[in-house]
Write a structure and sequence with these properties.
There is one protein chain. The protein is an alpha+beta fold. Helices cover 22% and strands 35% of the residues. Among the domains are: 85 residues, conserved putative lor/sdh protein from methanococcus maripaludis s2 fold, CATH 2.40.420; 159 residues, Efflux pump adaptor protein, beta barrel domain (Elongation Factor Tu (Ef-tu), domain 3). It is rod-shaped. About 6% of the residues have low confidence.
Length: 450
């Protein structure tokens, strides 16, 4: 048998078989890589009526985007992406349930409720400066007797404090007695002008004694008895505590010199320091409570009386002055106290947990839970923060919307990655641009002949 006659046909058959095997191998490789047949096994998905298509994207390779329907380089049909489709924003992410569970994602609903804040500060009890009284004399002399000899004594209004001998006091009393006798003698004159002159002289002498701080009772006693006293008795002008004593019995004092300082402690001030960010929560007239460490279980109720219009340079805090009643004089100046100021907002507002807000410095965001593992970031505008871990949302969120309260940083990282990838891979301009043509198919692997 002549084998040379059949050799060309045999070689041609082997070549055809090897070429067919190479094509099958390449098609199998593509199936393994993409998980689908290269050809159109199913008809291309059509756009739904009434919805505007944003663009078309490959279901296999998200890098491939087109403005018209067609096929991707692998032969798969392009999938439409609608503009009104929820969860399809540039930073929207979708997470499978197992990943959500491992991330520990928790959510909470935004509530519409009253918001309040409790400001706690350390205060110091001080004197009410409007209830401090200085006891002095308007004449020079010697302190004959000092009735208040120790600091801290409780005095009542009108109680004797000290007596002063003055060389100016005796002539003034004698002048007053002479003016009284002159008035009585001129009262019988038939001329009204003369009687009126005697009366004016007596009034002028009495007014001089009053200018020396001689009490009306002492002047009446001098008028009744006609006896001149060498000592001037100074009495307490208020109820209070002697907080300073600057005079000693027998001491010579000058006119205008402060002798005693008396403080009325029926009401006291409490000065406390609060931080700058707490200033919007305080106002004059707000109610405040105070407790003392040495009186456990006892609370005092007062109110804010004044906000000082400056800050302390070193601590960057503002001083608040509160007023408290002091029954039984239990509140003593220079005591330290714990102050609580409860400041509610006037109207209910939208609030979320503080952990739900992602603050980047310039902007603040929350992640909305859209359901089915989808999350979308939303920019919000923050308001006041309460001491209960809640923050006020002024803009960007409504009551009832569900936000993420944990793993926010992980979601933000994933969302920013998706946004950057979309911007990088999105065509620069789709309007009027021709549909991107599919790249030429890759050549099958070469067939090796033996």
């Amino acid at each position: 048998m002549n084998t040379r006659r059949f050799l060309p046909g045999l070689v041609l058959g082997l070549v055809i078989l090897m070429a067919a095997g190479g094509v099958l191998y390449w098609q199998g490789y593509r199936l393994m890589l993409h998980g689908a047949a290269p050809g159109p096994l199913t008809p291309a998905p059509a756009a739904k009526e009434g919805r505007k298509v944003k663009h078309w994207v490959s279901s296999i390779d998200p890098k491939y985007v087109s403005d018209k329907p067609g096929k991707d380089p692998t032969g798969m049909d392009l999938v439409p992406v609608y503009e009104d489709e929820p969860g399809m924003g540039p930073r929207t992410i979708a997470v499978d349930p197992q990943t959500l569970q491992s991330m520990g994602v928790r959510t909470a609903k935004a509530e519409v409720r009253p918001l309040s804040r409790t400001i706690r500060a350390v205060g110091k009890v001080a004197y009410d400066e409007r209830r401090l009284t200085l006891v002095n004399t308007k004449m020079e002399g010697w302190v004959d007797r000092l009735y208040i000899k120790t600091t801290g004594e409780l005095v009542k209004k009108g109680q004797p404090l000290l007596s002063i001998y003055s060389r100016e006091l005796v002539p003034a009393q004698q002048e007053y007695l002479l003016a009284l006798r002159y008035e009585q003698s001129l009262a019988k004159s038939p001329f009204p002008e003369i009687a009126e002159g005697g009366k004016r002289l007596a009034e002028a002498s009495r007014r001089r004694l009053e200018y020396f701080d001689i009490s009306p009772s002492q002047i009446e006693a001098l008028k009744k008895t006609g006896k001149v006293k060498k000592d001037l008795l100074l009495t307490s002008p208020v109820h209070g505590i002697v907080v300073k004593r600057m005079v000693t019995e027998g001491q010579f004092v000058m006119s205008g010199m402060t002798l005693l300082e008396v403080a009325d402690l029926s009401t006291v001030w409490v000065e406390a320091d609060i931080y700058e960010y707490e200033l919007p929560w305080v106002a004059v007239g707000q109610r405040a409570e105070m407790t003392l460490s040495y009186l456990p279980g006892k609370a005092f109720t007062g109110h804010i009386e004044y906000l000082y219009p400056y800050l302390k340079d070193m601590t960057r805090t503002a001083k608040v002055r509160l007023k408290f009643a002091n029954p039984g004089l239990k509140l003593k100046p220079d005591m330290f106290a714990q102050v609580e100021i409860k400041s509610p907002l006037k109207h209910p507002t939208v609030v979320v947990p503080r952990e739900a807000v992602l603050n980047t410095g310039e902007k603040q965001h929350v992640f909305l839970a859209l359901g089915q593992g989808r999350f979308d970031p939303r920019e919000v505008k923050l308001g006041a923060q309460s001491g209960e871990g809640l923050v006020q949302i002024l803009k960007g969120l409504q009551g009832g919307e569900e936000v993420v309260t944990s793993a926010v940083f992980l979601l933000d990282s994933e969302s920013r990655f998706r946004e950057a990838a979309t911007k990088m891979l999105q065509p620069p301009k789709l309007e009027g641009a021709p549909a991107p043509s599919a790249p030429p198919p890759e050549a099958p692997p070469p067939v090796h002949r033996h």
